[in-house]
Amino acid sequence: MVEAVTNVLDDSGLQRILAVMAHPDDVDFGCAGSVAGWTDQGIEVVYLMVTDGDAGGFDDGVTREEMASLRREEQRAAAKCVGVTDVRFLGYPDGRVEATLELRRDIARVIRQVRPDRVLMPSPERNYERIYPSHPDHRAVGGAALDAVYPDARNPYAFPELLADEGLEAWTAREVWLSGGPVVNHYVDITDQFDRKVNALRAHASQTSHMGDELPNMLRGWLSANAKAAGFGDGRLAEGFQVVDTA
After folding, report:
1. Which InterPro entries does the UniProt record give (predicted)?
2. pTM exceeds 0.90 for this model
3. Which of 166, 194, 211, 240 has its Cβ near the most Cβ atoms within 10 Å?
4. pLDDT in tens, 4-25
């Protein structure tokens, strides 16, 4: 579903963007091209991964603890490909994330720390046309992160311990971008950032090394379809989002 949106914040007025995702590699599949474009403009981007991705991978000889450590390092390496140096992890168990009050508080804490203008997150809605983005962890993180943006992070009386014990003042993020959901109302042309997106995903070797040349070909298929829907013209590549005004 594609709907036009006209009130997207101008990137030139942004100082910080926070991406809240469920697993290492989620941000790179969904948003790495857009992130590369933002950091090129001098916008600070921070990553928050709710899990360490310990349930991922294909090697039975790797323990879950080893996988978690490996995937944290892969995400840090992938972040560098697109100009991100601040990568944080909450350490929730992969595959068992629920949109609890505890998770809302943990995300609200980081929102108050980072004080972003824009927050990226997975869509909390299931996408029946393309099921893979609708992993239960993605939907749980999307729901919790959206609640953390509104009302938790901006309400000084929500989770009062964040202010009383940690000195974190309330903060209003003005805009949310949802990735992977059934509604798309905004596209970002990432043609010039495509190679960096591929490099970021290849940094997640435990998840993508088996794909070889299939990886960029698969990405081009997805991204060219987005660009066509956006009307960007032949040969262009785009990432799609649902933008929500939360000011």
Report:
1. GlcNAc_PI_deacetylase-related (IPR003737), LmbE-like_dom_sf (IPR024078)
2. yes
3. 240
4. 555 899 999 999 999 999 999 9
